[in-house]
Write a structure and sequence with these properties.
The complex is a heterodimer of chains A (495) and B (208). Chain A has 14 helices and 21 strands. Chain A is α+β, with helices and mostly antiparallel strands and 495 residues long. In chain A, the strands form 5 sheets. A 7-stranded antiparallel β-sheet of chain A has the order 15-21-20-19-18-17-16, with no helix packed on it. Chain A has a 5-stranded mixed β-sheet with strand order 5-6-1-7-8. Chain A has a 4-stranded antiparallel β-sheet with strand order 9-12-10-11. In chain A, strand 20 and strand 21 form a beta hairpin. The N and C termini of chain A lie far apart (83 Å). Chain B is built from 5 helices and 11 strands, in the order E-E-E-H-E-H-H-E-H-E-H-E-E-E-E-E. A 9-stranded mixed β-sheet of chain B has the order 5-4-6-7-3-8-9-10-11, sandwiched between helices. A two-stranded antiparallel ribbon of chain B has the order 1-2. Chain B has one domain: Rossmann fold, CATH 3.40.50. Classes of the chains: A alpha+beta (495), B alpha/beta (208). The interface between A and B is large, with 45 and 47 residues.
Chain lengths: 495, 208
């Protein structure tokens, strides 16, 4: 027999602030949310209730009643995070926990109750433990999800239990709204004079379906256990993180390295179990006087060994300033990817790959991974668009480099540098560039390149000349024909 | 690959008893020898070309370190005449200090045979000594391309490379300083392989 326990957290947003120690929650205080085109009160403190306020009032109305009311808008993101944390907390009651957003949890407690001494004791225990962490909860236990939910929300007791096999009867007295239907449907039902769930039992299902649609009958069937409605716990994501709190703060580098070593070993063990590696590790060091310090390192390829982690963190730890020591550490792995295990030693190519990956990690952790790059070829006829740079750690399909039909300069200036023409010609016989005067000995060109018409950036035609100067350097001169000012530029330098 | 030396035909490093044989030497042509596990300085207009020639004669990844603008102007489409650009990893340092640090780390790393560092001001004694120690550990050839002034350093050799008028791909390489004696000037010329592939031959010409 399946038994479901539903936990309703009627004042979750408020409890979140109370847990944070917000001083406003001691007085008249309310959480607000946008409802029916106005910011309205949703959750109130006891003081606010005593002042005569009720959920659903708009803020101006509420202020008129209680001038010293303080409000804060609800923060769904944080509340969802708290609910998720509570779902993890609920693991202590049952292994199958599902979220019932926005403010509830559903637990499949079949076969768990005897551990707590029966259903009633279990409900009381859950409520007690929730109270310990300053969260108010109401409990409903029944055979189906819908019934447990309805009991938690609509019976006035803190813990309500529908005895096994008698769910339908227990639900009789509850209002229609307990079916968790849309507001419109509830209003329609009310118009027909149906007020409690018990009254619905008396009506034929086919008639209900004809009048109100399948939504109602499905909900009713599920509530009574005639249609399956199983609990579906969210798949558990393995977390690759480890933390350590110490009874006394430590400040010596050797001690911190020791802590890191243990954390790394623990995280790596889990990574290896899952055949995973991580490309980024973050170490949070909670310093006694200056708060959290976040250190992070990256890897060019997924890492699953404690050695490199310690090695890469060494520099960051060295720079860390701890005046009074730190007593809390957490190491978390991010960008977790599957790894491919290989046979070492026999595979020299793989070993060389490891070496370069290690070097890229080392360099990237100091100068930044965006500064360690590789070239990637690109299909374009313009010399400045034939290639681009990507981060060396980025995973890419290895593009091969096709030989270019024409020689390109080894140094290509992204912004061509203007020259001062001393003896004009095509190309200039004598010109000044970078405070040097050059005489053209030989020139070859022009190589005329048309712009890429599908891009509207620079749509001038370009003429490139390969110029051998008498002074040595072989330059690549650029000129835009058809433009009024016949300026010349140095676009690059040949080897 | 063949290369003729100066009339006085001095060979550098290779046959010298002082040359560290631990990591061997890299021979360019028959006469130019660069000690592996050592740092070499390269000056002049065509220094980058010298570096690529060395890289082309070595295997494995190449790390090229430089400051922002210098590194941005490197064109892989021309690099591929010498080496496969996939072998190249570039490191853009934001300061000289960072560039020096990166170079030392790269030199120290195993499995990388060629590290190229581009600087304006040359390395001094202390910096070069550190590089030497790092390179000796791994057997990497370190090439310091200097566009400005070179200083007294512990580098193994110092080269001065300029384009020559002989043709499109020809240069004059002058060894102006060597710790193992033997200086010289070479005229070096590349010609494309007959099959049109990226393999390029060094053809001997009379030295200037």
């Amino acid at each position: 027999m399946v038994r479901i326990l539903s936990i309703w957290l009627p004042r979750l947003p408020l409890d979140r602030l109370i847990r944070k120690g917000d001083p406003r929650t001691n007085g008249s205080f309310a959480i607000t949310a946008e409802r029916k085109n106005a910011a309205r009160l949703t959750h109130l403190t006891a003081t606010a209730r005593q002042a005569g306020l009720a959920p659903g009032l708009s803020i101006p109305d509420a202020r008129a009643i209680c001038p010293d009311l303080l409000t804060e808008p609800a923060n769904p993101t944080w509340e969802a995070a708290l609910l998720k944390a509570l779902a993890r907390w609920a693991d202590q009651l049952s292994p199958r926990v599902a979220l019932d957003a926005p403010e509830g949890l559903l637990l499949d407690i079949s076969g768990c109750t005897h551990l707590f001494g029966g259903e009633a004791a279990m409900g009381a225990h859950a409520r007690q433990r929730l109270g310990d962490i300053q969260i108010e909860g109401r409990i409903g236990i029944a055979d189906t999800k819908g019934a447990a939910r309805a009991l938690a929300r609509f019976s006035q007791q803190p813990v309500t239990i529908a005895p096994a096999g008698r769910t339908s009867e227990t639900m009789k007295a509850l209002p229609i709204a307990a079916l968790n239907l849309s507001d419109k449907m509830v209003a329609e039902l009310r118009q027909t004079g149906l007020k409690t769930i018990g009254q619905l039992y008396a009506v034929k299902a086919s008639e209900l379906a004809r009048r109100f649609g399948l939504e109602l009958t499905t909900a009713l069937n599920r509530l009574r256990g005639h249609a399956p409605d199983p609990i579906m716990p969210a798949p558990k994501k393995p977390s690759f993180a480890a933390r350590m709190s110490l009874p006394e703060p430590v400040g010596y580098l050797a001690d911190i390295k020791n802590v890191l070593g243990r954390l790394a070993a623990s995280v790596c063990q889990r990574l290896i179990q899952e055949q995973k590696g991580a490309r980024r590790f973050e170490l949070t060091v909670c310093c006694v006087n200056s708060g959290d310090h976040l250190l992070s390192i990256g890897f060019a390829r997924p890492c699953f060994e404690p050695g490199p982690i310690q090695q890469q963190f060494a520099r960051a730890l060295n720079d860390l300033k701890l005046d009074y020591g730190a007593d809390w550490f957490r190491l978390a792995a991010h960008y977790v990817e599957p790894i491919r295990l290989r046979q070492m030693r026999l595979h020299t190519e793989a070993e060389a790959e490891d070496h370069i990956a290690h070097t890229i990690s080392t360099l990237g952790n100091r100068v930044g991974f965006d500064h360690v790059r590789r070239f990637q070829s690109y299909d374009s006829h313009l010399p400045d668009r034939e290639f681009f740079q990507i981060e060396a750690v980025a995973k890419t399909a290895q593009t091969s480099w096709q030989p270019r039909p024409r020689k390109r300069p080894l140094r290509l200036f992204q912004i061509p540098e203007r020259v001062r023409t001393l003896e004009p010609d095509r190309p200039p016989k004598q010109f000044e560039w970078r405070y040097h005067t050059y005489r053209t000995a030989k020139a070859q060109g022009p190589e005329r390149l048309t712009p890429e018409w599908w891009r509207d950036s620079d749509n001038r035609i370009r003429d490139y000349w390969r110029v051998q100067t008498e002074d040595g350097p072989r330059l690549w001169l650029l000129n835009f024909p058809g433009v009024k000012s016949p300026d010349w530029f140095v676009a690059g330098r040949f080897p | 690959m063949e290369l003729s030396s100066l009339p006085h035909g001095v060979t550098i490093g290779a046959n010298d008893s002082l040359c560290p044989k631990r990591h061997g030497v890299l021979t360019l042509g028959d006469t130019i020898a660069l000690a592996k596990g050592r740092v070499h300085e390269v000056l002049g207009e065509s220094a980058d070309c010298f570096a690529l020639t060395v890289a082309a004669n070595l295997k494995g990844p190449v790390i090229w370190i430089g400051l922002g603008r210098d590194i941005a102007s490197l064109n892989p489409c021309a690099v591929q005449d010498f080496i496969d650009p996939l072998r190249l990893t570039i490191v853009e340092a934001v300061s000289r200090q960072e560039a020096l640090w990166s170079c030392e780390q790269a030199l120290r790393a195993q499995g990388i045979q060629c590290v190229i560092l581009e600087l304006v001001r040359g390395i001094d004694l202390k910096e070069s000594r550190r590089f030497q120690l790092a390179a000796e550990e791994s057997g990497t050839i370190g090439l310091i391309l200097i566009s400005g002034r070179a200083h007294t350093s512990a580098a193994d050799t110092r080269w001065h490379c300029t384009p020559s008028f002989d043709g499109e791909m020809s240069w004059d390489w002058a060894c102006t300083k060597s710790r193992h004696g033997g200086l010289g000037t070479w005229r070096v010329k590349w010609t494309e392989g007959k099959d049109g592939s990226n393999t390029i031959h060094l053809v001997a010409t009379a030295a200037a």
